[in-house]
Amino acid sequence: xxxxxxxxxxxxxxxxxxxxxxxxxxxxxxxxxIGLGRSDYDLLDRAAVDRMLATxxxxxxxxxxxxxxxxxxxxxxxxxxxxxxxxxxxxxLEACRVAQTPKVVVAGTVCAYPKHAPVPFREADLxxxxxxxxxxxxxxxxxxxxxxxxxxxxxxxxxxVCLLPVNxxxxxxxxxxDTGHVIPAMIRRFVSAREHSLDEVVLWGDGTPTREFLYVAxxxxxxxxxxxxxxxxxxxxxxxxxEISIAHLAAVIAELCGYQGRVVWDxxxxxxxxxxxxxTRRAAELFGFEATTALRDGLQRxxxxxxxxxxA
Length: 312
Hints:
This protein is α/β, with parallel strands linked by helices. It has helices at about 15-30, 45-55, 70-75, 80-100, 135-155, 180-195, 215-230, 245-255, 280-285, 295-305; strands at about 10, 30-35, 60-65, 105, 160-165, 165-170, 200-205, 210-215, 235-240, 245, 260-265. Helices cover about 40% and strands about 15% of the residues.
């Protein structure tokens, strides 16, 4: 097992949404975290990656850095999402192999699962089909890091592990309507509609798909626990176990935002994957992770953060 107390832990993407929570979680566990952003080291540049490892000399590393976005962003830049996510991760893991970094935890994605995987998604079903088209390039890029991690474990003995988190949300999320995910985008739309007394809010799709969401602070705890306690090659789902339809989600967010107008669905826009809900038993069994934040509570905290001084 990894002795986290007193360990130096580098966190790529440490200046980002999930990264800031992971840094806090690591500090509470007694580690010495180093949060790294693109302005510190460009992970697309192998020489910069080598410098980062030589400078920080981490006992452990958590790889969170990625190019992410909602359906619209994935449709607009599928090539960039594939290339940059794959290249950052592949170069980083190779550099960690060369530097003999003792432990690496890699953030994968629920988008790697096949479009029609049986629900709840079980890790054993990860390779039984092609991902949903709207985010397949991103999902496959992250999936290649699992292949690399397992191959390096077999050939070189590297202790690289991979987690598969579901959609995250919470205070500090990206509320940009072009690049943000579904929860922050809905919050922004409903708050704006309430403030401008709009009669209706138009949302993509038909509202029937389901999703599973995980509060960001819970996700951060999962990464800390995996760093400390998980040392096996199999990927592990990280989720809440709570499935909700997009239509129900919209109704809850509208209520919490105080919006009383109509929700209009635009079926000409894509729904994305029909259902998403993961089997969370492996995380509970192998490193003791279970989500503790109910969706409604997490949504309330996120809305309060957005409406009480967040960037417009």
